[in-house]
């Protein structure tokens, strides 16, 4: 195992992948490239959605929120991860750990609810096309987005505060690469059964409940699509939902594997690699999925590029 400086009293030690120094070098390059793509891709979606009037619709309003969540989520984790992967020091200050815990948990919880809201938007677009503009009016969209953000903030204030108040009796080695609730409660020197039950209940509310709503929405969408006889309408319905369904599969498939899996296996490398997927890889894929599979976004990007070129001339 790589030498870890434990002389800084009070600081937490993020053990991460320090037992695999060769892997750390590979991960540093992969994470750095993924982070740069995340910054560029999500910033481009936000700018295009805000600048192009044709994208001032509920779908792209929620997509802008999702891109902003992904930008902040990865930024709360990746810079510290890159620092730890690059050098021998694996430490993070208690304040830095608390900030990372609060921000990442709030944004992760917000994304769970936001994806469910986006599924409802797709349900309204496909199953209620004639009433879509009436149903998804601007005030409702703002309320739904606000609900997603408030649920994330509320969850992190409760879960994060309870976790940080647990007595640790000098334990400061976190067998993970981020300050995350499941890893942090393992440092406690008291019975954590109540905390594990609380974490499981929070996972049910903020993971499985939104996932159930998403599945119900798409079951209704599939039922509606099956009644469509026009091939063009089929392609349009599948195209408008395909991107969101891919994002849902990537995010929920990895997050549920970490938060719903048995606690005994969490400290192993499998849990760390899965966490790496939803904290680094998934936010990178989101803008690629929405741009490569979405004609509206690609068209908006082309219009902005042509506009810039004509302005430059």
TrEMBL record:
Name the CDD domains on file. Answer: 7tmA_OR2B-like (cd15947)
Location(s), subcellular:
Cell membrane
Query: Which GO terms of the cellular component aspect does the record hold?
Result: plasma membrane
* Keywords annotated in UniProt: Cell membrane, G-protein coupled receptor, Membrane, Olfaction, Receptor, Sensory transduction, Transducer, Transmembrane, Transmembrane helix
Q: Which domain of life is it from?
A: Eukaryota
Query: Where is it chiefly localized?
Result: membrane
Which stretches are transmembrane?
26-48, 60-79, 99-120, 200-225, 237-261, 273-292
| GO MF annotations in UniProt | G protein-coupled receptor activity; olfactory receptor activity
Membrane topology, as annotated, equals: Multi-pass membrane protein
- All residue ranges annotated as the G-protein coupled receptors family 1 profile domain in the record: 41-290
Checking Pfam families in the record gives: 7tm_4
Q: Its biological function? A: Putative odorant or sperm cell receptor.
Q: Please report which protein family the annotation says this sequence is part of.
A: Belongs to the G-protein coupled receptor 1 family.
Q: Write down the PANTHER family for this protein, in alphabetical order.
A: OLFACTORY RECEPTOR (PTHR26453)
Protein name per Swiss-Prot or TrEMBL: Olfactory receptor
